[in-house]
């Protein structure tokens, strides 16, 4: 009863604990980060064990009513600039998506399930991965975001086998423009200089 009601929200909270402004991300010796990741690993085993019950909506679950919404939650973080958070989101997606894709029951179907999900949510994925790439931010932050975006797309290409042109052909994608901006950029005189300032 308690597992069914609170497990998904607990795992989500653990994942977010790896994000910005959290105690885990601020830990200088990474000890807390390691403990959070250990807790996530244990919790995911429980998610897989109780996947059948967690797939069913439950109004008592305040923020994540069912397993599909949990998959949607981790999917929104595959483009995160926080490396630990991004890595956990990618891993959790691949491990859990098979439980919410129709007809999927074997681990051998993980990649097929992930590919189906990625294609159905591709436009949303592009907006997640590329969010903030042309924001008016300092160069160091921009480069961090660009690196995170490239990691996300590399993951999509390697683990989900999504075709490259499926990404760049999306009308809202600015990936090629950003790569061009990076290649042709002049190093900023100060960290406060933004790409938008230099391009105007």
Question: Could you characterize the architecture of this molecule?
Answer:
- The protein has helices spanning 2-16, 23-26, 31-49, 51-54, 67-75, 83-96, 110-120, 122-130, 139-159, 164-168, 175-183, 195-199.
- The protein has 200 residues and is mainly alpha-helical.
- Helix 1 (2-16) packs antiparallel against helix 3 and helix 1 runs parallel beside helix 5.
- The longest helix has 21 residues, at 139-159.
- It is globular and about 60 Å long.
What's the arrangement of secondary structure elements?
Blueprint: H1 2-16, H2 23-26, H3 31-49, H4 51-54, H5 67-75, H6 83-96, H7 110-120, H8 122-130, H9 139-159, H10 164-168, H11 175-183, H12 195-199
Helix pairs in contact: 1-3, 1-5, 3-6, 5-6
The portion of residues forming beta strands comes to under 5%
- Quaternary state reads single chain
Average pLDDT figure: 76
| Stretches with pLDDT under 50, minimum 5 residues | 103-109, 189-200
* Class per helix and strand makeup: mainly alpha
Which series of helices and strands comes N to C? HHHHHHHHHHHH
Largest sheet descriptor: none
What's the tally of helices?
A: 12
Portion of residues in helices? 55-70%
Spatial shape: globular
Cα-to-Cα separation, first versus last residue: 58 Å
Tell how many strands the DSSP assignment holds: 0
Q: Notable features of this structure?
A:
200 residues; mainly alpha
Short description:
The chain is mainly α. 62% of the residues lie in helices and 0% in strands.
């Amino acid at each position: 009863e308690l597992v069914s009601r609170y497990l998904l929200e607990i795992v989500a909270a653990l994942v977010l604990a790896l994000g910005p402004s959290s105690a885990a991300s601020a830990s200088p010796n990474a000890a807390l980060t390691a403990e959070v990741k250990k807790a996530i690993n244990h919790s995911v085993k429980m998610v897989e064990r109780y996947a059948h019950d967690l797939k069913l909506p439950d109004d008592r679950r305040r923020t994540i009513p069912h397993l599909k919404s949990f998959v949607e939650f981790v999917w929104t973080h595959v483009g995160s600039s926080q490396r630990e958070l991004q890595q956990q989101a990618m891993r959790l997606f691949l491990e859990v998506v098979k439980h919410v894709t129709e007809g999927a029951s074997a681990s051998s179907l993980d990649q097929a399930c992930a590919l189906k999900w990625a294609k159905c949510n591709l436009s949303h994925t592009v907006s997640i991965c590329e969010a903030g790439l042309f924001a008016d931010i300092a160069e160091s932050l921009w480069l961090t975001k660009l690196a995170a975006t490239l990691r996300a797309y590399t993951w999509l290409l390697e683990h989900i086998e999504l075709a490259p042109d499926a990404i760049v052909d999306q009308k809202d994608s600015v990936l090629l423009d950003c790569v061009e901006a990076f290649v042709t950029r002049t190093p900023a005189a100060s960290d406060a200089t933004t790409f938008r300032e230099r391009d105007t």
